[in-house]
Amino acid sequence: xxxxxxxxxxxxxxxxxxxxxxxxxxxxxxxxxxxxxxxxxxxxxxxxxxxxxxxxxxxxxxxxxxxxxxxxxxxxxxxxxxxxxxxxxxxxxxxxxxxxxxxxxxxxxxxxxxxxxxxxxxxxxxxxxxxxxxxxxxxxxxx
Length: 143
Fold this sequence. Notes:
The chain is α+β, with helices and mostly antiparallel strands. It has seven helices and five strands. The chain has a five-stranded mixed beta sheet. It starts with 9 loop residues before the first helix and ends with a helix.
């Protein structure tokens, strides 16, 4: 099933953009760390140590900032520029997760922005490409 082309209205993005970023950051970091512990995210955490990330959901006005150490991703904001920024509309992030679109296609169609450390961006993209998203379904149901 292909996801429809949905972009949030500007007024809704402005409301969401005013909400605190800590709840979505907690959800994202918890999901990443759970995947890491269960071997579903083959990340070399030494490489990510001290790195700062920003996920910018453009149509929702939501910026999720987090970092990493040698063992896990950290639920903490930071000041200044991220080492890596990924920006797209929410539906395009969902298409990546659903494997309807790969990050390269979205990037070349100007639907995904990747800014910052080029090598870190490539490593992160390859890491996300290597995740078996189907293996996560039992965990989403509490399994």
